[in-house]
Amino acid sequence: MSKVRFRIFTLVVLVGLALAAGGTYSIVVNGQVAPDKAIVVNGKTYVPLTVLKGLGVAYSLKGNTLTLGKAAAAPAANQTAGGTEQRASLEGCLGETLFNGLWRFKVTKLEPILRDAGTPGETPGWGVTVELRSGAKEMVQPVFTGVRDEGIQIAFADAQTLTADGLDVQKLTYANLPPGGVVTHQLQFWYRYDTPKDQIQTPTKLLFEINPKGFENPIRASGASYTTPTPSFRVRLDCRK
Fold first, then answer.
1. CA–CA separation, 241 vs 235, rounded Å?
2. pLDDT by residue (tens digit) across 204-229?
3. In this structure, are 160 and 43 located in the same domain?
4. Residue 163 and residue 78: Cα distance in Å, rounded?
5. Using CA atoms, how far apart are residues 25 and 41, in angstroms rounded to an integer?
6. For residues 47 and 32, what is the distance between their CA atoms, to the nearest angstrom?
7. Rounded to two decimals, what is the model's pTM?
8. Could you tell me if 55 and 105 lie in one domain?
9. pLDDT score for 94
10. What is the DSSP letter of 199?
11. For residue range 97-115, what is the model confidence (pLDDT) as tens digits?
12. Among the listed residues 204, 238, 228, 188, the one whose alpha carbon sits nearest the alpha carbon of residue 103
């Protein structure tokens, strides 16, 4: 056996022995088991980069440099594009009815909520109770008038946002409403389950985005329409009328 091959063989054996001695660990990220494992080499534990994404840690690899954190990130996760104040919307306060020609919208309550309370997976969040009343002349569902599930968010003073629970929000956006019909629903917005209590902030706004281009033709043909070019709603949660 040549010296080069012997050295390579020796290195492989040593690495194998180090891994065997240190072992591996399963990784749980936000309550989910990651497909990759952590390894121990020379007494130090290493986790794969794929785990960082699940933790919300941005990273980039350029040449021989690994960059972590803000310097590696694109615009901050959950930050509203253009800023929460720059979305063209009808604006009001808690308890105030806003009307865009088709929907009468009112936010009636803001309160802290918990999911799986008293368990290891206890998750903090905010509940926002809203009323949505139809001004259409026929049966209509909000989702077919440009209401976007992912566009329903709460915003905080630092411009960060939380998006409404993806399944729960459909109880509102897919509600079948007759002329004058109303749906009252508590929208749910969740932090990650392991968010420290000192990082829980009170939201300052509810954003309810409506894309007029998402208006289905059969609904438009019934005579329903928006009377404003900016039919989205922005409700301040720090004032009441």
1. 11
2. 999 999 998 888 777 776 777 899 99
3. no
4. 8
5. 12
6. 15
7. 0.65
8. no
9. 97
10. G
11. 999 999 999 999 999 999 9
12. 228
